[in-house]
Amino acid sequence: MDSTEDEASVFRALADPTRRQILEDLREGELAAGEIASRFTISAPSVSRHLGVLKSAGLVRERRDANRILYSLVEERLATCVGRFLSAVCPDQIVLRHTRRRTAAETEGDPS
């Protein structure tokens, strides 16, 4: 798999709101598959498929602990892929310029 296709798998994984929620849930630390599934109204097999997509994209890792499968976020993978994309389409100076403008506008509008 080339790097373009590899990064595309990350964005395909991020396209689904359930998978994004799983990633958010994992930001506090690892969770068992059952704990993750209990947070959703969809079936456990559906959650398992979502976890498989996230694992294939390299966004989560799993480890076995006795009869449980624990999942954790691969923060560096997420940050690298999304960061590379953002720096290509939205260079830092553009982000900083917009932030400065927004801060200045908020300050001007602040009566205190």
What does this molecule look like?
Keywords: DNA-binding, Transcription, Transcription regulation. It holds the Pfam family HTH_20. InterPro entries: ArsR-like_HTH (IPR011991), HTH_ArsR_DNA-bd_dom (IPR001845), HTH_MetalResp_TranReg (IPR051081), WH-like_DNA-bd_sf (IPR036388), WH_DNA-bd_sf (IPR036390). It comes from Kitasatospora atroaurantiaca. This is ArsR family transcriptional regulator. This protein is of the alpha+beta class and about 110 residues long. The chain has a single domain (about 5-110), classed as Winged helix-like DNA-binding domain superfamily/Winged helix DNA-binding domain (Arc Repressor Mutant, subunit A, Orthogonal Bundle). The protein has six helices and three strands. It has helices at about 5-15, 15-25, 35, 45-55, 75-90, 90-110; strands at about 30, 60-65, 70-75. A three-stranded antiparallel beta sheet has the order 1-3-2. The model has no long low-confidence stretch (mean pLDDT about 85).
- What does the average pLDDT come to? 87
Oligomer: single chain
Share of residues in strands: 5-15%
Radius of gyration using CA atoms only: 18 Å
Domain HTH arsR-type: 1-93
GO molecular function, one term: DNA binding
InterPro entries: ArsR-like_HTH (IPR011991), HTH_ArsR_DNA-bd_dom (IPR001845), HTH_MetalResp_TranReg (IPR051081), WH-like_DNA-bd_sf (IPR036388), WH_DNA-bd_sf (IPR036390)
Organism: Kitasatospora atroaurantiaca
Topology:
Elements: H1 3-14, H2 17-26, E1 31-32, H3 33-37, H4 44-56, E2 60-65, E3 68-73, H5 75-89, H6 92-109
Antiparallel strand pairs: 1-3, 2-3
Helix pairs in contact: 1-4
InterPro entries: ArsR-like_HTH (IPR011991), HTH_ArsR_DNA-bd_dom (IPR001845), HTH_MetalResp_TranReg (IPR051081), WH-like_DNA-bd_sf (IPR036388), WH_DNA-bd_sf (IPR036390)
GO molecular function, one term: DNA binding
Domain HTH arsR-type: 1-93
